[in-house]
Amino acid sequence: MSDQPTVLITGASSGIGAAYADRFARRGQDLVLVARDEVRMEALASKLRAQTGVSIDVVKADLTQAADLAAVSKRVREDDRIGVLINNAGAGLSGVFVEQSSIAQQNLVALNVAAVLELANAIAPRLVQAGSGAIVNIGSVVGLAPEFGLTTYGATKAFVLFLSQGLAFELGPKGVYVQAVLPSGTRTEIWDRSGADPANLPSLMEVADLVDAAMVGFDRREPVTIPPLQDAGLWEAFQGARQVMLPGFATTVPADRYRG
Ligand SMILES: NC(=O)C1=CN([C@@H]2O[C@H](COP(=O)(O)OP(=O)(O)OC[C@H]3O[C@@H](n4cnc5c(N)ncnc54)[C@H](OP(=O)(O)O)[C@@H]3O)[C@@H](O)[C@H]2O)C=CC1
Ligand SMILES: CC(=O)[C@H](N)C(=O)O
């Protein structure tokens, strides 16, 4: 057993989550892999156990199902070897808002929002008590861009960014590191799964490049890591513009433009 914290990764059966599993295993950290496809996770776990010698548990769970989410949440809450949560499981949703069914939107929110929130909620008190550990939430640049037209998906990812920034503000001073990772288009199965038109795919980053960049941000304890953003100054300017507004919210008087 490793003396480093165990890493629980949701959505570890493919794509970004599987790449995270590979990177943390190569750092010698034990893993808990969570997703629905047990066969794929077992295959990944066998390979990584053989290559790295780490211990890996596989947990089959559909995080949109209350009983499965509760079981994973209980594990996160109670297993004090788990010191890093990678909140990665997520899905996309193709089509325009008026054509998406309410149930499809609700399922998306269950996975991309409710499960992320529940697992953060399950681990945070324990990490605060320990004064260490990390929560990594996988958002998306789409959460910054209503103009991309992926309204429901983008809204879930805007939630992930806000949650991460709020948690960083609350938990950072208590020794817990919180990172939001905002990929843009990355070559994974998400496009196929969400029914995206292959003819309209954006240019895609390779998943290994995305996760290696995210790990650089992780090691630097960066609060928000945006691997495709070439000019970090743009993000800083965006944050600065937002923060300039904040003191002005403390007023009891409506702005002049709203007074007749
Ligand atoms: N690829 C991209 O372009 C981008 C991806 N992202 C985000 O990255 C994250 C990972 O996606 P990515 O690797 O690209 O896509 P993949 O489709 O390859 O991976 C998604 C993972 O989530 C798991 N998953 C899906 N539904 C459920 C469920 N109901 N319960 C439990 N696990 C589930 C899948 O496993 P299984 O089917 O076995 O359950 C799989 O392991 C997502 O949050 C996504 O929004 C963000 C920006 C860009
Ligand atoms: C489905 C998508 O839109 C993509 N994964 C992204 O977040 O860029």
Your description of this structure?
With 260 residues, this protein is α/β, with parallel strands linked by helices. The protein has one domain (6-232): Rossmann fold (3-Layer(aba) Sandwich), CATH 3.40.50.720. It contains eight helices and seven strands, in the order βαβαβαβαβαβααβα. The chain has helices at 15-26, 38-52, 66-78, 102-130, 151-171, 190-193, 207-219, 232-245; strands at residues 6-10, 31-35, 56-60, 82-87, 134-138, 177-181, 224-225. Strands 3-2-1-4-5-6-7 form a seven-stranded parallel beta sheet, with helices on both faces. α1 (15-26) packs across α7 and α3 (66-78) packs parallel to α4. The longest helix has 29 residues, at 102-130. It is globular. The model has no long low-confidence stretch (mean pLDDT 97). Residues 92, 140, 142, 150, 153, 184-185, 190, 194 line the site of 2-amino-3-ketobutyric acid (AKB). Pfam families: adh_short. This is NADP-dependent 3-hydroxy acid dehydrogenase YdfG.
